[in-house]
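Standup notes
- HV: blocked on the assembly model, inputs below
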Amino acid sequence: MKRSWLIASLLLIFLSQATADNGYRLWLRYDRIADEATRGAYATLLRSYCIQGNSKTFEVIRKEFELGLPSLLAQPVGYTASATEASLVIGIATDPALNGYEELKALINTIDNEGFVIFSVKNATPGKIVIAGKTDIGALYGAFHFLKLLQTNQKITNLSLSSSPKIKIRILNHWDNLDRTVERGYAGASIWDWHKLPDYIDTRYHDYARANASIGINATVLTNVNANALVLTPMYLEKVKALADVFRPYGIKVYLTARFSAPVEIGGLKTADPVDADVQAWWKNKAREIYTYIPDFGGFVVKANSEGQPGPQNYGRTHADGANLLADALLPYGGVVMWRAFVYDNKVPDDRTKQAYNEFKPLDGKFKSNVIIQVKNGPLDFQPREPFHPLFGGLTKTNIMPEFQITQEYLGFSTHLAYLAPLFKECLEADTYVKGKGSTVANVIGGEIFKNQVTAFAGVANIGSDFNWTGHHFGQANWYAFGRLAWDHQLTSEAIADEWIRMTFSNDATCIDAMKSMMLRSREMLVNYMTPLGLHHIMGYNHHYGPGPWVAGKARQDWTSVYYHRADSLGVGFDRTASGSNALEQYHPEVRKQFASAKVCPEEYLLWFHHLPWDYQMKSGKTLWDDLCFRYYKAVGEVSKMEDTWQRIKGKVDEDRFNHVAAFLSIQRKEAELWRDACVLYFQSFSRKPIPPGLPKPARSLEYYMKLSFPYAPGIKPEW
Amino acid sequence: MKRSWLIASLLLIFLSQATADNGYRLWLRYDRIADEATRGAYATLLRSYCIQGNSKTFEVIRKEFELGLPSLLAQPVGYTASATEASLVIGIATDPALNGYEELKALINTIDNEGFVIFSVKNATPGKIVIAGKTDIGALYGAFHFLKLLQTNQKITNLSLSSSPKIKIRILNHWDNLDRTVERGYAGASIWDWHKLPDYIDTRYHDYARANASIGINATVLTNVNANALVLTPMYLEKVKALADVFRPYGIKVYLTARFSAPVEIGGLKTADPVDADVQAWWKNKAREIYTYIPDFGGFVVKANSEGQPGPQNYGRTHADGANLLADALLPYGGVVMWRAFVYDNKVPDDRTKQAYNEFKPLDGKFKSNVIIQVKNGPLDFQPREPFHPLFGGLTKTNIMPEFQITQEYLGFSTHLAYLAPLFKECLEADTYVKGKGSTVANVIGGEIFKNQVTAFAGVANIGSDFNWTGHHFGQANWYAFGRLAWDHQLTSEAIADEWIRMTFSNDATCIDAMKSMMLRSREMLVNYMTPLGLHHIMGYNHHYGPGPWVAGKARQDWTSVYYHRADSLGVGFDRTASGSNALEQYHPEVRKQFASAKVCPEEYLLWFHHLPWDYQMKSGKTLWDDLCFRYYKAVGEVSKMEDTWQRIKGKVDEDRFNHVAAFLSIQRKEAELWRDACVLYFQSFSRKPIPPGLPKPARSLEYYMKLSFPYAPGIKPEW
């Protein structure tokens, strides 16, 4: 063996041992480009780069290029101070070194302050590429986009592209508690090590910011919506400031959850009534104090009068009174209040899915301009499938934003592969008809329909202290997809999967095909082994782990499963048409038409809107009961197929991640079987019909499944 | 640049970016040996190795050699099936390929079943080394020892060494809960991902086992002594079995904590009374069941009738009745009961430090042969300094083992650098005089004094899900030192530090000197900024974070600080002589002599045994008050010096770990100042004397420190 290769191979041995690829690097891997022709072409073109800018953000760009370019190209790519000499130049569009390019003049007006342009300079030999933004954050987004072009093996000749985000505030919601537990977190503990802040700055905070910036996320709520007022005290504000200081160069603003009763709990007041002058003064002072720590503080996210959280209704006031109280305090500093519409009071309504609309529709137009109502994608609670929330299009004089759940509270925790871009897009592309056809949720929240002053897009993070951040390696794809869709909801699920796979795993066509086929089908498959045909909220109580269609007799009816599936000897499903709860009335007449009769209602929403007899005839020609069974069984079969698909790319993916995913797929199959068997047996106790011929009978009895207990399922503080 | 070095350096760049040394590899790093002469000598000698054995353990050995040898030597070291040809041979001593060596015959009888021998074959050219044990686990220990010789740059010519452990059961106690919290854990969550077991086997479980085997730890208690009976149910036993299967090839046996009331909680019985026949049958059946899952299950660890845990006293029975109940159940399978002596009932005694002795001394001789009493190193509770526990030497007819606390509950959590080998050794080397001079604690627990049937050595683990396992990079040294001392208590603290530094950081002399100077002084320094002169138990309430000498008025007097320091206008300290609680009487007369009068009592134990006036004259010539102040201030100065020492080796340690340690040292200094200022001001409120001239006054008031609140300090479930 030649000495050179000996050294190289020894280093590779060492490397593979040292790193044992744990997925920590997410999609920012920058491994040597495998395809030699592509790498050679890049290497010929990219000999040096010049950073035309001087700020902490440009320092971030420099580090990212230092890290990425030589490693991807497997050759030194030197820094040069000369924009003329460099083959890659990045800067702000107004910089004299850049603003002479004709190409820039043509592109620059197409972008906003966060946008970027990337173009090849015409007639430059051997080639020159310029990346520019109107701001340094725009340039940073451009830098990450350019690196992505390399990571995904795109052509980088004759470039002429520009991009701006469709939504202003692209924000992660961390449901992280101050004791480092994460509500509905399935990837270890909170990454915020509050106890050691502000003195110890984990390098992970920087990597978190890098990852977010690379997909355009520009805001983060550090704390749980089930809020703790302590985070608003000086001891914690110092810690929040330390994180904000880390995130600022990456263009990320920090938000906190504001506990409505904070004036009482940490302020020493007797009330938190929003019309009380002392309360108003307290919040104003608190806002002023926060901004002395964090001059670019983003604002508050509030869960009020919901699931036991305090709120303005405790004092006979409205959500508008409460939200405006905080909005007034933040307004002088440009802060925003994200007021959640996920509310319900102690009276169980005729249909819980109606409550948010019922409470907020009458308040439309009463919120201050820096309030935005944060609405879950569907009217219930992050189920595997829900119709879009009727407040989209329902509120016409109020800023409104969607809240998606990236963490898989109801979708198999962190062990189920379920690619969520199709779920997010299903909501975004739904048509509210509020201003006629084409009034999609995306257009409503993007401000195209009502010219909202604030636009935002929230996702409940699936991030924790696990080495790979998200528990499942494929969970990273949901974080990624959330960011990409917040930037541009028109991207297809497939396009996002394609670039994520290339960056995260491989540019190998076999790998891409295999993983894409797994990802694109996975959410529909999961719906079918958990909650087919519009069933919903039939999971285990409290921890939400595993099936629990039998859950009944809890403190509130609308915390039980039987309330939602309404199975009886005659049939199954929740009638939300005029003959039932009439939740359907909250939608535009054009939307109602799509769901009002079982005959026209798409089958995936059938039991969401209709209670139907067990022998109702489905489009397949089967009875409802048979169709339900077939869906459960077919979906479990699909998990097995996914396992096979994964095995076929063995050797093409590093061993660590391969084995990790294989083990998780095996858990997913077992749990899919659990869902199928438990649900089929349970519903059979009502339908009293046989499992259709050809389908194997569950090995255990319904009683067995009902007795299973998982007191330490993750994501909640245990009750047991 | 030559192509070879270009490739090598690019790979190195890539490597450094990819790994960002997070300390995950612990002391098993196997980086290329930096000293070229040493590496060259090894490389000349070690061209190939032969594994003479066929078992999962030998498979572990093979993997470790594959990982370690080429990487350390930076050259291929091939495997060969020929023991004759190989330059390194490992196997069992009786193997025909080994048993012809004269050198082996000379050494083999010096070792026990876990021991190993390593020798150079005489007159072999260019050299041949043989590693042998009587068992494959012995060989494994030999393999790790040999790798350590390389890692620490020792000569490997003319080898002739053998080693056996002095203690049979060398066991980690994990205080890990089933919800992944860790009581008194400061390094993230539990590494046991119970929810995903048994299906997902984290590679970390293997690396945990490797690390333990490399230092001779051969047992682990997976669950918290504040026990949950659920772990004894089939659902959890399947998970425990999965871990036991991982650990077995590494020679590690699994133990569980047994909740005394389990027969009621999971068995459906009405009582857990040890004389009840149904209870006895339940435990026998439970033991049989456990052994069907785990044929080499180690046994139970029990905390009974202590801090609210149930126990035999609930039924009017003794600790012996309780321990023997479980011992009888385990006996057919060779299992052991480790019954903790850390007990106290609801009656507050005149001196809590007396209670364990008072309860267990009368039971001496009443425990079954497979019971061992697990006794904390000191009579109180893991304080920075305590005298040795009087049960060492006190029990003469009962198996007895020490329990050390590796996790730093009272020693600054995971942010304080405090090397604990000196603390462990202080206890081990203390002389009980029970059979005359030389009856050290080490000899008592080693079985030399009373010929105990079971010997064991326990440490409460400091391990968690943090990337570097222990929070502080130097916390790894305490895990390491615990294992090394369990194997051989005669090793010096310095020798252990030396090898740990070389394996974990560097063989560079400057580094070694600097780190050793920090480590060896650190525990004494910590004692002096927290609890100098024998003060104890003056930390924050419940979470034990920070100073709390003012803690008073709790449910039990002996949970308060004022109970222990007894400061008043006249003086300070706990009189444990005949004029006080007379706890001293629990020791041998020769020991009593050392402590009975303040004049002879070593000053480090002064206020543990004596209440003395503020103007008591110390050996320094200063008054007690002045001496106390000087110690607090001097110790904080030492932390600053430690920071300086660390800065001096900047560039000699990888950047990630360097910055990590530097940040933690800064936290340590701030917290040392907090301890100093709070304690000095608090005790001053009694002494009413000025802080001695030359010492700066604390910047804040006592009231300020007393008002500090840390509701989310880690290591407990929050109360707030």
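- HV (later): unblocked. The first strand of chain B starts at residue 48 and ends at 52. Residues 402 and 459 of chain B are 8 Å apart (CA to CA).
- Next: hand off to the docking folks.
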